[in-house]
Amino acid sequence: xxxxxxxxxxxxxxxxDTVVRWILVVALAVFFACYTPQEAxxxxxxxxxxxxxxxxxxxxxxxxxDLEVRxxxxxxxxxxxxxxxxxxxxxxxxxxxxxxxxxxxNRLEKWGVAGTVxxxxxxxxxxxxxxxxxxxxxxxxxxxxxxxxxxxxxxEFRNREAAVExxxxxxxxxxxxxxxxxxxxxxxxxxxxxxSPTAEIILFxxxxxxxxxxxxxxxxxxxxxxxxxxxxxLVCGFLGCFVVVVTAFLVRQPGGIAPGMLYxxxxxxxxxxxxxxxxxxYWFTDTVRGRKxxxxxxxxxFGRG
Length: 305
Prior knowledge:
This protein is α/β, with parallel strands linked by helices. Helices cover 50% and strands 8% of the residues. It folds into two domains: 43-175, Diaminopimelate Epimerase, Chain A, domain 1; 198-283, no CATH class. The chain has a four-stranded mixed β-sheet. Strand 2, helix 4 and strand 3 (115-122) form a beta-alpha-beta unit.
């Protein structure tokens, strides 16, 4: 009898343990089903894959691919990295915190040798926020530097690619590299680049004229005219080239100058000025009327009887 009672108690004990285990399993299942951890915004979790990161499909895919290639080429040539991030809305985001996370998580400081600019665009509000890296902070502190970047105007939503293109151009003008190295868009002929060609227009006829005048002045009014022919050519050529490069820097518009025009100006100025120096004996003579070669010139005396 004792053995039978102990056996029945063991069976009852096993059943009690099973019930307790099932209760724990059910409780844990209910807990995990009801518990939903607070998730960070999707824009914080996503890593930036390139120069253009359109998380909202705000832009046409063809334009995104074209702009990606152009901004990568701009980074290689100028050393500046312009990174564009498009998010759905900025109202529920802590923008300053989000920008800091994008810089830290993606190491944006190292994307550009000369510096990085993050352009954050919110689709719903049309905000455009340009955040430079530490190397470029001074450039963006200039008065009215960000006046054309801050937000989209209502008509600009009709042509979103043109609106983004204008902001990219504005950032390039603030960065102001020596050369204009941002290629114009190739996907849409309407999105023409807005770089001012004033400097190129001035230098096209101005470069040969400056080279000519530099050579004439050197040969007529300095001791360079007494140098041997080869030295005259080099002196006139290099000084003519130097004068044109300085002029190009003075007339250069914000955003840089077209490399081809600068090469043309330097080359043609060097050639014209060097030609003037090399041909000096054929167009300039040391003799004057009434004086033989080598004879000293005496000043005239008036009032003698």
